[in-house]
Amino acid sequence: MRMRHGVAAILVLAAGLVSAWAAAMPKDLIVGKWQPAAEKGKDYQFEFNRDGTLKVSDKSGNKELTYEGKYKFLKDNLMEITLEITDPDSKQTATKTQKVTIVRISKEEMTTSDEMNREESFKRLK
After folding, report:
1. How far apart (Å, rounded) are the C-alpha atoms in residues 88 and 62?
2. How far is the C-alpha of 56 from the C-alpha of 61, rounded, in Å?
3. Phi then psi for 109, rounded to 5 degrees?
4. For a FRET experiment, which of 29, 87, 109, 122 has its CA 20 to 30 Å from that of 49?
5. Tell me, which fold does domain 2-124 have in CATH?
6. How many CB atoms lie within 10 A of CB 81?
């Protein structure tokens, strides 16, 4: 009887550790709205959806601009982001794709590095 309880306790503990580890993966933690932590980026907002879609809002000019895109994880901390960017004046659309590494991520903060090794910090919006 003791052996069964011991095995059951180990299984429950292992299941808890696996779920805690799975929940802490960047692909899960990134879902939500983020804003650059630096003052110069406060006009931008990034919304990562669970289905791999991305919306970027830019309130830096006279009007708010929104860009739609997609993201996918190539590795645990490496993602590829593709955005459709339309110039508001010429109405021409360009597709931009970039690989971004997640250096650190938690429920409240994230630091990324682009292909040119430029790091940027973000905070989660509530």
Report:
1. 11
2. 14
3. -135, 155
4. 87
5. Lipocalin (2.40.128)
6. 19
pTM for the full model?
A: 0.78
Average pLDDT over residues 43-69: 92
Q: How far, in Å, CA of 58 to CA of 77, rounded? A: 25
Type of residue numbered 97: T
How far apart are alpha carbons 26 and 79 in whole angstroms? Answer: 10
Fill in the amino acid letter for 50. Answer: R
Those residues with Cβ within 8 angstroms of residue 125's Cβ, 6 or more apart along the chain or in another chain:
32, 33, 34, 35, 45
3-state secondary structure 50-69: CCCEEEEEECCCCCCEEEEE
Residue type, 37: A
Per-residue pLDDT of 66-106, as tens digits, reads 999 999 999 999 999 999 988 878 889 999 999 999 999 99
CB 79 within 8 A of CB 71: yes
Q: For residue 13, which amino acid is it?
A: L
